[in-house]
DNA sequence: GAGCTTAACAACAACTATTGTTGTTTGACA
DNA sequence: TGTCAAACAACAATAGTTGTTGTTAAGCTC
């Protein structure tokens, strides 16, 4: 673990908003002005590979990175882009028997999509 | 509705595999050799805007387009990229009360991720 | 059917997000 | 201190998608 890796890791754990790679870069550059965006991408990919981070690809735009390493779900506001965590479990959600033999399911993601949220509504009045 | 639009629309309804824009382009070009990829993207976007199609952004790579206009869920094989439809409903899945006031939820997507599937397994032996 | 109008089109350029490449730095260790 | 490997920064390139613009073609008027 190099200084860059540690700094990126801590930046992510300090952010609860599922930042993009560029957002992480922005944050990290306040301390390490010479770090390259390439290194941030590389490190984030490594951490995802190690299972330390999750990568969220929710709709168009850049990938978001998620420091929470317990499985959880998300609520996405399509108006402002906010992504909230949802630690609730839904044990009743499973693949029907007819498909269970076809697919080796390893995880289940639930995404609630919203047309607006408290932050949006608050921002405009 | 122009000939191009009609052809793109029919190409999508003839494909059950959630094709990419490029795949649609490939298919359509067998008949209309001069159609541009730009037109395919434009038309697909228009159809999504009209609610005739859904756009799926599942993980990295190009967007996939979905002709089924009843809400449904998906099973994704991360090994081969196959995406299967799941018309089962999960009525028990909803946003917990504590967040229901914050987010104006308009839809719910469930994605089952698989590490392999019948097609993969069959293909290698 | 010629002339006007407008929407859609093809061609091409630009852009965003991400990854490939390569030479340099850094830090562990002999 | 010299050797080595891993990680890095700089830069180039790629994939996917959208912006722009001049051209074509369909619909309407007379
Ligand atoms: Mn999360
Ligand atoms: Mn589908
Ligand atoms: Zn919002
Ligand atoms: Zn498969």
What can be said about this structure in brief?
Chain A is α+β, with helices and mostly antiparallel strands and 125 residues long. Chain A contains five helices and five strands; from the N terminus they run αααββββαβα. A three-stranded mixed sheet of chain A has the order 4-3-5. A two-stranded antiparallel sheet of chain A has the order 1-2.
Can you walk through the features of this model?
- 2 copies of one chain form a homodimer.
- With 125 residues, chain A is an alpha+beta fold.
- Chain A has 2 domains: 3-66, Winged helix-like DNA-binding domain superfamily/Winged helix DNA-binding domain (Arc Repressor Mutant, subunit A); 73-114, no CATH class.
- The first copy, chain A, has helices spanning 3-14, 21-29, 37-50, 97-100, 118-124, and strands spanning 54-56, 64-66, 73-77, 83-86, 103-117.
- In chain A, strands 4-3-5 form a 3-stranded mixed sheet. In chain A, strands 1-2 form a two-stranded antiparallel sheet.
- In chain A, strand 1 and strand 2 form a beta hairpin.
- In chain A, helix 1 crosses helix 2 (21-29), helix 1 (3-14) crosses helix 3 and helix 2 crosses helix 3.
- Chain A is globular.
- The mean pLDDT of chain A is 94.
- Chain A binds chain B through residues 57-60, 63, 75, 77, 84, 86, 88, 90, 92-93, 95-96, 99, 101-118, and chain B through 57-60, 63, 75, 77, 84, 86, 88, 90, 92-93, 95-96, 99, 101-118.
- Strand 5 of chain A pairs antiparallel with strand 5 of chain B, so a sheet runs across the interface.
- The complex binds manganese (II) ion (2 copies) and zinc ion (2 copies).
- Chain A binds a DNA duplex (30 and 30 nucleotides) through residues 2, 4-5, 20-22, 34-39, 41-43, 45, 60-63.
